[in-house]
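Hi support team,

I submitted a single chain yesterday and got back a structure, but I'm not sure I'm reading the token output correctly. Could someone confirm the output below corresponds to the sequence I sent? I've pasted both exactly as they appear in my results page.

Thanks,
R.
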Amino acid sequence: MATYFVSPTGLDTNPGTLGQPWKTPQHASDTVVAGDTVNFLGGTYTNTTGWIFNRSGSPSRSIIFQNYDGQAVTIKLKQLWWSGLSTNTMGYLKFIGLNFIGDSTAPGYGIFIDRSNDITFQYCSITDTNSSGFNSQHASYLVIDHCEVWNVCKAYDEECISITEESHHFEVMYCNVHHAGSSQRIGIDAKVGCHDGKIHHNNVHDLPGAWLGGIYVDSRGASYNIEVYENDVHDLPNGAGIDVGDETGGGSLVNINFHHNRVWNCGNAGASISQFTNVPLTTFTDVHFDNNTFYNCGYQANYFAVLNTDGVNPASMTNCSFRNNIGFGLVRSYPTIYTPPIYNAGSLKIDHNLWYNPAGWRLDEYSTKGDSFIEANPLFVNATSYDFRLQPGSPAIGAGYGGVNIGAEEIYTLISTWYVAMTGNDTTGDGSINRPWRSINKGLSSIVAGDTLYIRAGTYYERLQIGNLVSDSSHWTIISNYQEEEVIIDGTGLYAPAQIYSSSYLQFNGVELKNAQNRWGIGLSLECHYITLSNLLIHDTYAGAIYAAYDDVGYHPNMITHIVLDNVHTLNTNKGLTGEAISFVTVDNFEIKNSLIEHTFKSGDTQQAGIDTKYGCTNGHIHHNELNDCGAGFYCGNINQGVTSSIEFDHNKVHHCMVLGGTGMLLDSEGVPISMTGVNAHDNTFYYNYRGISVFMSLWLLAAVPIQSSAEGISYGNGRNFRSDSYHRFHDP
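Hi R., thanks for writing in. Yes, this is the structure output for that exact sequence:
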């Protein structure tokens, strides 16, 4: 069982060691034998032909292809035989931590699991294909785990992940499937005689053309024993959420179970049972939709329903159910549609569901609410933030068939303190101190606004998505390290180790964020208000450490407000991209204090500021900070739509901004003929900076064309400025 290495700068004539790695993925797969491991060093690999496998592992000795030491690995695929990567009947192969880019010039799949067994893709991604991202045919014991699939099916009406042609014993789990092509694209599909499979804990969303379903089980033969559970399916403007059916007819669907799924914002029905017209009759036996939650589904005028059974013949269904579900509508729509024939015939049991629609349900001969239903507000914790847990006192608690709760979620316990630890488990843990969760994002997706989430010591390799935690001044949400334990978020290969968005009254404390070194990599991005960041260390980023701005095009006055940075240390930022360590864009009511900003510039770039407040920032106080070794210390600038105003700088120390052109403070009109008002700098210390005058008024590098700008109300008294000559560069004043 040998270990080999591959590098974009290697040679296939090398022995494949760490010091002398191979160059191409194809050479590696043609050389290794059962039990070997291939480590890909960071970088981009460009295949000149399809990656076709010709060697297998064995039952106890899989061949592993993985990124090395968490490094970012991208493999650009070239299509051959209708795919960029084909397992080609080989088996016992594992792919871990590899990012694949498809061949957008050709019509095929990205990854083709072709007549293979025991294949695992884990923590991989695939994008930019004209057909499916993953396609399996006649495969067995296939696992697709924690993979991201997006921007696929660009030219063909296929599925982002397609399990087909009698593939069996498969599992698709914890995947993020989103933003595919604009026609009839489906998120995850198991079809054409597939059986014995599980599809669970996936996030399927933003598929504009997925009219058949975010997750779809199709017969076209005999499909059976498939379980679809605990998935999030949402934001399909033309699509159904979860769907079972037969497009060609004459097939059978047996023991298909959809349960504990959360489905929201689907223009078509939340759930659909499909029988296409003018095809032979399909049989549905033991097909169940139980304990799911549907929110704002069926809002398109042609569908208007939580459950749609259009075209299904009563004689085709045996022992099927739609039971213990919550249907929450936001527009006047049907709870179910085209259901009475199969409901009245007893072919489909519709019972013990909870229906709620503030706009009112539509009911006629095409619709029914079923038996033993409840019509009441389910009392979700926060429906607008898609937190569908049940509050104590919810009418759904214990009201389902068999005495279980109705809907996909359990009761929200009023325990407000939760824990994440390296020793935890996302499946068996409950978030308590003795049974913590393993991943921080599991905790973030489980807590509600006002809770406290403690992170125990360790290094976590994940991007924190801190969102939709809208609280109030009496119930701050706290995300923090536990009792000063060392917590590191390693963002290797990620856009940003952490993002806070659509949240308010939140504290984020006591963690280290590092290694946001892919292109545009930022340590922490903010799109929120009433946020306090304290005791953070952010270092080694491709771009800045903290970026507070809305990324879409346009000017957003006062959209990001009330931000406090206290005791934040940034180090070695902007290593690859011009910018600032801390950048506030159009932020209102903010404070930056007690922080240390150092080593912020790229190859002597004078545009690398330590702290940047620009483009209409207002009502800020920046005090008691130290800025060291930056392109510029402070930067303050305008934009046509917004005047930067009412910002006070005091009791700061700025030194060793020694790069050519570097200055302690730069007030810059950026060529905008409008005023900068009420900017007051006092009681600051500037020394050992390149410019003798540390507060420097510029018109964007002394533009040749005169610009009518002014800076009213600016003062910089009581500070000390020292000439930055060779002596003072090495001696304290």
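A quick pointer for reading it: Residues 209-413 form one domain. Let us know if anything else looks off.

Best,
Support desk
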